[in-house]
Amino acid sequence: MTRKLLLFLASTMIAFQAIAIEPATENTIPQPTEECAEEDDVWSFWWEAGFDLASNYMWRGFDQSYRGGNRNMVDPSFQPALTLGYGKFYARLWGNASLFSDYKEFDMFLGFQHEGLEVTIYDVFCGVGNDFNAPFFDKSSHNLTATIDYTFFDRLRLHWATTFLHPNDFVVKNGVERRAFSSYFEIAYTQPFKEVFDVEVIAGASPWTGPFWCPTRVGNEYDWDNPAKGFNVTNLSITLSREFQRGDVSFPISLGYTYNPLSNYHYALLTAGFYF
């Protein structure tokens, strides 16, 4: 009798243990894991909007006010931006309206960003004064450029840009007019200082003759009929920056100095932004 009782109790305990570890049935609703939640967040819609106010519009070491024939050391610029994204892909609209030079620009971007890699293709529509009022679909007012950036260790960034379509981006070699594929590359290094501000140092250059964007200087003017030949350094910059955050709104500010060895011009640049 005692043996039967012990066998019954042992059988009962084994049965309860089997029930406790029984795998989930088809009717069990699985709970999302943290990895799945993070993956869903990565592939979701996102957006950002805002603007910068800059003391001048600097690009590749050149102040864009010179495009209007009036080189201004200070040319306040309003630069709004809107970005719509899905996961790692995004589309961006960016504009510039300069005060003193009356230079205006409207850019459209398509981009992809993953970890340290960013690839973009963008179109630029620009002009000075009445030139900006040209028909938008007039191809002579546009240029198409592709860029690739890669950042190592969140500090060292390599950038390359090449223009593929532009009505004036041609050079003559051996009596034959060929597309120049005007390009620009730069190396940038960013160093944080005690979470107070970041210092970024940039060196940028034109690797070969670039009639689209790299002119020679004659006196105080730029000669677009004779672009700078061969390799030319155009951008040596140092910038101090910090971004303030309040809720979902950010306020980036920066103060920089730029020297363009090709034009032998020096610039100070102050920029303040508002983004949400």
Word description of this protein:
This protein has 276 residues and is mainly beta. It has a single domain (48-275), classed as Beta Barrel (Porin), CATH 2.40.160.40. 10% of the residues lie in helices and 57% in strands. Strands 1-4-5-6-7-8-9-12-13-16-17-18 form a 12-stranded antiparallel barrel. A two-stranded antiparallel sheet has the order 2-3. Strands 10-11 form a two-stranded antiparallel sheet. The longest helix is centred in the first third of the chain and has 19 residues, at 2-20.
Number of strands: 18
Strand content: over 45%
**Number of discrete domains:** 1
> What Rg do the Cα atoms give?
29 Å
- CATH class equals Mainly Beta
- Give the N-to-C terminal Cα separation: 79 Å
Key attributes of the depicted protein:
276 residues; mainly beta; Porin; disordered N terminus
